[in-house]
Amino acid sequence: MATHEHEITEPVDLCLADGSLNPAAVGWSRTPLHRANLRGWGRTKRWEYWCVTTPTHLVAVTVSDLDFLALSTVYFLEYGPGGREFECTSIVPGARGVHLPDTVAGAPGSEDVVAGPARPSSGKVRVEIRDENAGTRLRARCLTPSRLPLEADLLVSRPAGHESLSVVVPWSGRRFQYTSKHTALPAAGRVRIGDEVLAFGGDDSWAVLDHGRGRWPRTVDWNWGAASGRTDGHTVGLQFGGRWTAGTGSTENGLCVDGRLSKIGEELDWRWSASDPLAPWSIRTPSSGQVDLTFTPFHNRSTRTDAGLIANRTDQCFGHYDGRIRTDDGTEIAVDRLLGWAEDVHMRW
Questions:
Q1: Residue 94 Rama label (left phi>0; alpha psi -120 to 50; beta)
Q2: Which residues pair with 221 in a beta bridge?
Q3: Which whole-number Å values give the CA distances from 94 to 67, 69, 114, 119, 153, in the listed order?
Q4: Of 94, 110, 252, 322, which is most buried with the most CB atoms under 10 A?
Q5: pTM for this predicted structure
Q6: Is residue 345 a contact partner of residue 312, using CB atoms and an 8 Å limit?
Q7: Which residues constitute the domain of residue 113?
Q8: Mean pLDDT on 23-27
Q9: Residue 284, domain member (yes or no)
Q10: 239 φ, ψ to 5°?
């Protein structure tokens, strides 16, 4: 199933000299090849979001620069009834002191990212994203709501030849997004909460990266889904998007199976209950049959914010995917309880 979209195979600048979208940058690639040489202020958004999961808990770290402010966030979730959930966000007006590079932070040849004080006090967050020979090192520190220190130290491996999905989504010559999504990356390390240490590693700890650089409209709605793990004898990473790409000629849909990407150019059919996000979701390709999945959530990370410049409604549901997928070479794979998430977001920023 070859996509109609243009595959980029050589490095390219995202923008022309005047800051508008470079037409040669529109397309997708199996490795990050774009340099996000963004210009202009006010509509430029940059972020790095990493989420590392195990069968029992997960941790996510974010550094984002929205021009008029920067946000650094650490989120921890322990699954099951009574499981702990912590979130700490540090806001930096004017994004002072926060710098995100033009390429994937912490990747070989790119810049490292360090945001926040080395010893964060209440309400502050420290995030480090650094390149190491073996992969990308993620470190984060904050205080939980009960004022226990939370420290994460995780190493995300970069298997040789492992492919990702990078794509440019063009709304117009002045509004566009470059996103690079990486799934099914092995991860290992620990998260310490007070005196308790939680281990990440083995065969069932996986990392997902959402790297974003672009110039966005004031208001946007999107779906995003991702999952990683082993199923039906394969290592599988799912990467799905919806709504925000409609009408652009680009999608952020792909399957990473045993390190090889199958790019899906078809818009997905997302079905879920906005009034009950914990009800099962359906995600499928309406024409090709390449994706036919049910997502069953067990937890909703619900966020509602209205702070003038920013208004956000997010339902990020964590759960399991079941069903079937088909790769470009026709291989049918049964998906059985693949751990991940699906989200419904409205953003004004």
A1: left
A2: 346
A3: 6, 4, 17, 22, 28
A4: 252
A5: 0.97
A6: yes
A7: 12-348
A8: 98
A9: yes
A10: -140, 115
Q: State how many domains the chain has.
A: 1
- Say whether pLDDT at 39 is over 90: yes
Nearest-angstrom CA–CA distance, 260 and 136? 20
Residue 327 lies in a domain: yes
- The residues near 329 (Cβ < 8 Å, ≥ 6 apart) are none
pLDDT of residue 1: 61
Q: Is residue 214 situated within a structural domain?
A: yes
Please report whether residue 3 resides in a domain: no
Predicted confidence at residue 42, as pLDDT, reads: 87
pLDDT bracket for residue 310 (50, 70, 90)? confident
Which of these, 313, 319, 315, lies nearest to 341 by C-alpha position?
A: 319
CA gyration radius for the chain?
19
Alpha-carbon gap, residue 198 to 193, rounded angstroms: 8
d(CA 294, CA 172): 33
- How far apart CA 136 and CA 130 sit, in angstroms, is 6
Work out the average pLDDT over 71-96: 94
